[in-house]
Amino acid sequence: MPEPESFSPVATARALLRRARTAALATLARRTGHPFASMVSIACEPDGAPLLLMSTLAAHSRNLADDPRASLLIEDRSVADPQQGARVTVVGRIETLAEPAAAARRYLARYPEAALYAGFGDFAFFRLDVEDAHLVAGFGRAMRVRRDDLLLDLTGRDALLAAEPDILAAFDADPARVARLAARLGAPAGDWRVIGIDPEGLDLATRDPEARRFRRLVLPALATSAETLANLLDDWENTSGMQDLSQID
User: Fold this and answer.
1) Where on the phi/psi map is residue 197: left (φ > 0), alpha (ψ -120 to 50), or beta?
2) According to CATH, what is the number of the domain 158-238?
3) Are 93 and 63 in contact (CB under 8 A)?
4) What is the rounded distance in angstroms from the CA atom of residue 21 to the CA atom of residue 30?
5) pTM of the model
6) Alpha carbon of residue 32 to chain centroid
7) Looking at the predicted structure, is the pLDDT value of residue 1 above 50?
8) How far are the Cα atoms of 140, 148, 156, 199 from residue 152, in angstroms, in the given order?
9) What is the pLDDT of residues 161-208, one digit of tens each?
10) CA-CA distance, 72 to 230, in Å (whole number)?
11) Which of the four CATH numbers 1.20.120.350, 1.10.8.100, 2.30.110.10, 3.40.50.1980 does domain 4-150 have?
12) Angle between helix 175-184 and helix 226-238 axes, rounded to 10 deg
């Protein structure tokens, strides 16, 4: 997470969401109304809204069928003292995606092993329709993060999102550049790929299913098109120094 002198609640909360692999999902138990917590794997839509792949037969899914209100707790596990690590609770309502193709691509790029069951009849893709968030970033740092600050405004960025397959293909065709990006992020050597793009940055992952690693590259400004993304990435590569490396890996 960012150092104290450059601390940004919004940037910290966004980083937690984008870098997370798992979260604690809290739903309301159907029979008793108690909070019911379970572990889920998450990915993000281009605006940062959490994506989930869940069995409709699971207890939490049955809870959500009765009451879609839910929250996700995401924590930074890179620090030795959990109380000093940042964590964010994101609240909203879980909704089933009627047209899940784009979400499926983003989710399965992050968790390719999920393709084994993603097509089963009792599995579906969901998103958390974010309403609010609460960030705790160490002792004495607890604050609200508004939905409109947490999520990216995608207005005017349709061309960028539509170009994502071509952008990813271009990175696949230039593995040497991807390796340089990963190294600049302080990543260990590996077969790195760019698996997703959004206006704020790039998601990288290794191909090794047994020891999959992730890195997040945050651009110096928000991209509006494939061209501006390319220019911003060039600017990032040409600046001195190294990006903050703390993350959920």
Assistant:
1) beta
2) 3.20.180.10
3) no
4) 27
5) 0.90
6) 32
7) no
8) 27, 7, 12, 8
9) 999 999 999 999 999 999 999 999 999 988 999 999 999 999 999 988
10) 33
11) 2.30.110.10
12) 50
